[in-house]
Request: fold
Amino acid sequence: MKNKKFVILILIPVFIYQTIFMFLPILGNAVISFMDYNPLRADNVFIGFDNYVKMLGDSVFYKSLINTLVFVFVTVILNILISLTLATFISQLKSNKTRSIFRMIAFLPCIAPIVASSVVWLRSIYSTNNGLLNLIIKACGGDSINWLGSSNYLMISVIIFTIWADIGYNIILFSAGIDGIPNEFFQASEIDGAGRWRQFFKITLPLLGRTFAFVTMMTLISHFQMFAQFNILAYKGLGPQQSGLVITSYIYKMAFEHKEMGYASAISMALLAIILIITLIQQRSNKVDWEY
Amino acid sequence: MKLKLNRGVSYRLIIFVVLSLLALIIIIPYVWMLSNSFKTTAEILTKPGNVFPDDPTVSGYEKVLFESMFFKWLRNSLWITTVTTLAVLFTSSLVGYVFSKYSFKSKKILFIIMLSTMMVPVQATMIPMFILINGMGLYNSVWALIVPAIFSVFGIYLCKQFCDEIPKEFMESAKIDGAGDMLIYFRIVLPQIRPALGALGIFTFLDSWNDYLRPLIYLNSTDKMTLPLALSYFNQQHLTDLSATMAASALIMIPVIIVFLLFQKQFIKGISMSGLK
Reply:
């Protein structure tokens, strides 16, 4: 259809709005990263690449970057392995009802506010004296573990929590992918005598290719941005010896606790760069496309 | 469903048992939250292993409901979430309709530019946004959370996909009958894309209800807080009172769990069809 007036009437406000709340902030962030910006000060000056130079020499930044990378890669790999396995298992169940009940249960933690879940794990599951995990360990004769208070265990604890809180999404996405594979493929392979493992690796996995790439990228991107559970499970967003400090927490702290917004912007540009690189890699690999 | 292969009941039984155990693990934290929320602090300390409280009490819930600003927080959350969700549904469907059904200059490139912002992490815009919100005088107001959120690129994308499915003839015959662009939007487009709106509404509701980072940045005083922010505040205020904290957590989860149970079919469909979270 054509109606220039109507299109302009709708799109002009949209682009004004997008400019104010999206394009300008993206640009503004880049500009602020070249400034010594403190919101409480009247004049803020440009300092060139100083913030970036500072970042490259900042051991806390590297610490947060390493923590983030460890968290993201361990969590994402485990998340995908577990959710793909569970989705495959669920799809092999006979009754439609049981299948949807299992998917629903797995999805529960995804809809509950992550702050509420974090608080529950902080106070009722991970707490040293009367947390459920330590109660179980002690009942089995083990020594209780300081889950959140020791630098050895903090990241492991957050990873376990995050997998619990987030696999539901991917289970549903993988389930949809598996349901989309024509049943004849499985029947034919069964006639040929293929076992379950062979079916999984020769049919399910290859035909899930696109879903798999998509899920991996979305999970990677979302995990790089996780913040709430670190803010609550790691004491003051840091944890012992900064073992729970991730890049998002560091940006938040720099910007809103230390009021060093210029420096925080520079760090957020690093995060943006990481996410951009993942997106580009994904788009590259997506070019190899096919249908079944 | 697809796998209707008949290969031994025992295999399926094993899978069922494994899945049931995992389902139990997923549910246990909630059970534990409820259990602790009905215990007295003394019982939590002396008999931490009890699943069913010896001496069940609702004092934790009373503390949350009557001694904190719970209803104020609930109202803030409900207000922000409702306005945001309705606004997103309206803007997404309208703009999605325009991008899908109208032809105009550089439509493709405009759409791509818009879509490209979907990948930008919150952290890469939150500092200028904070300065902007401050400058607009919205700091510490619920509008700081509503105004920048009434528009969703993901929503537009989803609605456009669904509008693409509406046959051209529908629109054309309506046009011939003299219907204007807005009338077509209300009478034809909205009813046709209802599944998309259902899914989008649920996603937006959840995102808005569960958001933590933006309230943390924009809200400052206790009476302006949303529920998740208030919970983390409440938790710090009640470090010794576990049952009240668990009661507060349960109270925050209940509305979303109700919404989920009511709409779970649309939920699961919505996620699979959008392919996006």
Observations:
- The mean pLDDT of chain B is 89.
- The CA atoms of residues 206 and 250 of chain B lie 16 Å apart.
- Chain B touches chain A through 92 residues (CB under 8 Å).
